[in-house]
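PROTEIN DATA CARD
Card holder: 3-methylmercaptopropionyl-CoA ligase
Chain length: 542
Origin: Maritimibacter fusiformis
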Amino acid sequence: MGWLNDETGLERNAANFVPLSPLSHLNRAKRVFPDRTAIVDRGRRFSYRDYHARASQLASALAGAGVGPGDVVATMLPNTLAQAEAHFGVPATGAVLNTINTRLDPDTIAYIFGHGGARVALVDSQFLPVAEAAIARMEGDGPRLIEVADDAAGFPASGRHTEYEDFIAAGDAGFAWVMPGDEWESLALNYTSGTTGRPKGVVYSHRGAYLHTLGLSLDWGLSRDTVYLTIVPLFHCNNWVHTWSIPAVGGTVVCCRDITAKAIYDAIADEGVTHFGGAPIVLNMIINAKDADRRNFDHVVQVYTAGAPPPAATLAGIEPLGFAVTQVYGLTETYGHVVECIWREDWAELPDEDRYAMKARTGVAQVMMEDVTVLDADSMAQVPMDGATIGEVMCRGNVVMKGYLKNPEASAEAFRGGYFHTGDIAFQHPDGYIKITDRSKDIIISGGENVSSVEVEGALMHHPAVSLCAVVAKPDDKWGEVPCAFVELKEGASAAEEELIAFARERLAGFKTPKQVIFTELPKTSTGKIQKFELRKLIDAV
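Structure generated from the sequence above:
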């Protein structure tokens, strides 16, 4: 019998076990890097001492407003100082942060407010009318709105709600943070894009976010010299946890409210930005920038891109400009990216076309994930790694969500067989690199946003002239993919393409609206099921 079978006196205690939380990163940074620049928001610069103090004031003000452990605080904010502060200030009260996609429609936002039970919502003045419209649709009281004005961006305070700076001014910069008693406590609530029906609430733990921040730091080579630009929205998987990560290394976050080529080039040239993440549309924006918007810089900028494989033409266009692009993959349910196309030195001498094809592979598991592979969805057996046999991408590890809020059935199905089922179809190469080939739920990824074909079809079916419709992805140079609708009209009815697009736009967010409508008889199986693969062939033939 080994001596470690006797564990007497080896129990956890306050000295040897502290619950993991990304909050610890900012607490440490305040002590270790008090005078280093922590965050830049246009003309405003804040040290780690300042950043911590303002997050503490927010936490104190929220506590004074009745927010406590387990409560939910929502945000509808662009990538500005207040949104970054909320990532620390909200959980510092023991509350759960719910960052809401600012592009959503009032009905969906009303559902999220109600389902998540938000007590307070921090809302940028630009999005205040949408938030107010959402609350007006709710049964009972919605969250208390705190307005975050942005005069510099042309969005002054409306005067209808307490303004953010006034709100936190009443808070105590010395507020004692409520750290988690258990690292499994909930840190954040993020809603999926609603692939079928209403969006699902994905719950993150303090533990998962903390481990993801450390894994990111290792894989991406973050350091005190890192200057990170917030292009990925902080409402997308909490900015892929990037903003939580930077204080761990004492780097600098640069806020970017409006994502334009000029803003990106200016941040790189003026602030020395070294890292950012973004969808392929951002890469194309940089490549196609006007000469007047370009700036010179003398260092290589590290870029993570996700949402769709970067086309070879995009890689060929952006790399000579000073950007090193790496494809990553993940989902809301995995706190953002968990797969990376890790560069292999033996690819360096390949011809450009072959090298870019290698970089377009989805990749292998990142360090924060225990296993990401391709399994047969029914048998849960590993598919042959032959570059051809398809299966479903499956994940397991410490950065998989806790589950779906108030939906144990969906959680159980997602975790069936001891893996998280992504719903993405892929094959694996002999070296283990995954290559995604399709999405089992017909998700359209437009400009980095997930669009549910079912939701778009449901909106179009409300038009009195529409008998049947199907929506599939159409390749687009700017957005990567856009929704394209195929429509069968009722006998004797008529409708124009522009009419149906406008009809859908009244019911959907702009990025979900079809960009083309094709009138045709839809191909169907003998049982009446629409054959979407045939529709994709029609698009390819156009």
